[in-house]
Write a structure and sequence with these properties.
Order of helices and strands: HHHHEEHEHEHHEHHEHEHHHEHEHEH
Bound molecules: iron/sulfur cluster
Shape: globular
Number of domains: 1
Largest sheet: 4 strands, parallel
Number of helices: 17
Strand content: 5-15%
Radius of gyration: 21 Å
CATH superfamily: Aldolase class I
Structural class: alpha/beta
CATH architecture: Alpha-Beta Barrel
Amino acid sequence: MSNWREILSHIKHWSRESNGEYRLDRESAITLYRDADLHALRSAAHQRRLQMHPSKETTYLIDRNINYTNICTINCQFCSFYRPPGHEETYTQTFEEISQRILELEAQGGTRILMQGGVNPELDLQWYSDLLSALKEKHPTILLDCFSPIEIDGIAEVCGLSTLEVLEQLKEAGLDGLPGGGAEMLVDSVRKDISPKKHAAGEWMRVMQEAQSLGLTTSATNVFGFGEKFEDRIDHLLFVRESQEHSLSQWGNGFTSFIAWPVQLENNSYGRRNKGRNKYELGAGPSEYLRHIAISRLLLDNVEHIQASWPTMGMGVAQMALLGGADDAGSTMMEENVVSASGTDKLEASEHELQWTIQRAGFIPRRRDSKYSLLPTPEPTESLQELACPPPARVSEYATKEVK
Ligand code: SF4
């Protein structure tokens, strides 16, 4: 099929049972990305979201990011967070400092930490195992989603074990899942340009599949806007879809969700290298981001959840994403140091903000944990009915109409 209207008209009949017949292929996905009218595309993605998640509830997570060390040897060009070993601004948090942060999370009713940092050659497997054991003992109700694939790779290198053996030991010590960090673009030609010392796309995916084989929770991410082509963006999504197919059939455990955001270009060598091009040719503005979210929802038919990214796009655009493919408003984070070092200034969201963003998009806010299990949810502190001009209560139903 070559025409975007024909493609959207065909896939509007999608259902879980008929997925094989209506699955988007590479060529059609590229056509949609390049040519489709944004409103029609978002409407189709919203329809798909409602087919997959017909409930009026939209989820969010109370969690905390912890960036336990900024020492890193990988030198990604887009990263403003890391410091090389020996640099005067390096830090590694103590177990007590990390535990203190979790106490603050517990006080807010949080259920998980997302802990990731640099590839620190000064820390061995014992340090990581001891950390997880200590945290599990002190904070038994908190899920520990820690260490992205490149960190697992780094630990394996330091201790001379395979990544699978490292994951097995970390799971034994209390690890519940891996953050999706470090995927960026899962296309090697792009990776070689932006982070030549980082492992290849296949290595990132291999570590994730190993984690999935052990029953750990994982999510897939995608940073885009490095100057890559439409084809590269689609290939990233297809790689995630293929891997998901494999993992679900092998272990019944794949990525819980997909989260995408545009690269941030301040304070890093990638931004400096491209001075003058940044504003117009790199990164992505709201309309391109919303297009990317919509395509993701349509293409990733075997990944249950698409998350909106408020830290990079702001609450307003994240809210629009909830009406164009995304079904989850993300998390409170409480603290973020990696992406924010490259130019975002919103580092945390309150539960109230997330609930309000969801409500004003016409949905009912619902707490979840990192496995997307629904949790008891406090009533939103303000009622939409009290507003002089409340948003349409059934806005989400409009898009169930057929895509024209
Ligand atoms: S993005 Fe991660 S791996 Fe790359 S330099 Fe920064 S901390 Fe290191």
